Amino acid sequence: MANPTVIVILIAITATAAAAAAPPATQYTNHTVGGPTGWFFNATTNSSFANYSSWAASQTFNLGDYLIFNTSTNQTVIETYNETTYRGCTPDDDAFEYGGGSNAFGEAQTIAVPLTLEGPAYYFSGAGDGEQCQQGMAFAIQVNKGLGLPPILNQPPPPPYSEPPSASTQWPPVTVAGDQTPGNGGMRSGANMREELFGLLALLLLLRL
Ligand SMILES: *[C@@H]1O[C@H](CO)[C@@H](O)[C@H](O)[C@H]1NC(C)=O
Ligand SMILES: *[C@@H]1O[C@H](CO)[C@@H](O)[C@H](O)[C@H]1NC(C)=O
Ligand SMILES: *[C@@H]1O[C@H](CO)[C@@H](O)[C@H](O)[C@H]1NC(C)=O
Ligand SMILES: *[C@@H]1O[C@H](CO)[C@@H](O)[C@H](O)[C@H]1NC(C)=O
Ligand SMILES: *[C@@H]1O[C@H](CO)[C@@H](O)[C@H](O)[C@H]1NC(C)=O
Ligand SMILES: *[C@@H]1O[C@H](CO)[C@@H](O)[C@H](O)[C@H]1NC(C)=O
Ligand SMILES: *[C@@H]1O[C@H](CO)[C@@H](O)[C@H](O)[C@H]1NC(C)=O
């Protein structure tokens, strides 16, 4: 008689614990923004193809996940952590623009945005001087810790700010390449040796005087 009761209680406890805790992340997820609809704005109807806030509310975002913007060059993707910038639909200094580089209209493009910071993050289209953003091309997300950043994304500073560091990290290889040029290296070490000899002679002369 006791055994079935114990089992029922155990099942109840297990079920309660499972319901209370958010489903733990077991893998990194790529979220296609807007689902099959993608990230598009219809200039004729002056409206977004989907309600992106609703879409975002249907997803659970974790560190290391990607937002995949299936879109065209008619829309842009701007990321900010500043809610004021997001509400104002204005790409400010503290916002990062993904994609770009094409002035053609309607060219298909896929933009992958890694989620590298825990907490709120905001996305909007900067096309049409903020008009697209005002008409629904904007959404906010909450990034949970999940499994934490995978090593490939866990390099300070995070990828969204990679522009200045990538410029500076290119310096050492450039310098090394220059030094390794045989002609330069030979001439330089020759010149260095001559300078050193001259310095030594000058020193000896000074000491004797
Ligand atoms: C998610 O997207 C990123 C960036 O495009 C890609 O490197 C990765 O392989 C994708 N992961 C999955 C599970 O599709
Ligand atoms: C991306 O968008 C195109 C055109 O809207 C669609 O045909 C394609 O299935 C979409 N891809 C994904 C992965 O949703
Ligand atoms: C935009 O909306 C209009 C009117 O509903 C429709 O005719 C047109 O095909 C839409 N444009 C795109 C690119 O879906
Ligand atoms: C689209 O909506 C915005 C904001 O309401 C408005 O300023 C703009 O004139 C509209 N554009 C068109 C083409 O209807
Ligand atoms: C989008 O959906 C949200 C609820 O998720 C709703 O509050 C909002 O009014 C919707 N926006 C539009 C433009 O329909
Ligand atoms: C967010 O942006 C607004 C407007 O540009 C600015 O005044 C404010 O200082 C920013 N907030 C933070 C926390 O950077
Ligand atoms: C992209 O924008 C151009 C210029 O405004 C317009 O002619 C074209 O129909 C747009 N394409 C889509 C798919 O919305």
Automatic annotation (TrEMBL):
<dbReference type="InterPro" id="IPR003245">
    <property type="entry name" value="Phytocyanin_dom"/>
</dbReference>
<feature type="compositionally biased region" description="Pro residues">
    <location>
        <begin position="153"/>
        <end position="163"/>
    </location>
</feature>
<protein>
    <recommendedName>
        <fullName>Phytocyanin domain-containing protein</fullName>
    </recommendedName>
</protein>
<feature type="signal peptide">
    <location>
        <begin position="1"/>
        <end position="21"/>
    </location>
</feature>
<dbReference type="GO" id="GO:0009055">
    <property type="term" value="F:electron transfer activity"/>
</dbReference>
<keyword id="KW-0732">Signal</keyword>
<dbReference type="InterPro" id="IPR039391">
    <property type="entry name" value="Phytocyanin-like"/>
</dbReference>
<feature type="domain" description="Phytocyanin">
    <location>
        <begin position="29"/>
        <end position="145"/>
    </location>
</feature>
<dbReference type="GO" id="GO:0005886">
    <property type="term" value="C:plasma membrane"/>
</dbReference>
<dbReference type="Pfam" id="PF02298">
    <property type="entry name" value="Cu_bind_like"/>
</dbReference>
<feature type="region of interest" description="Disordered">
    <location>
        <begin position="151"/>
        <end position="171"/>
    </location>
</feature>
<dbReference type="InterPro" id="IPR008972">
    <property type="entry name" value="Cupredoxin"/>
</dbReference>
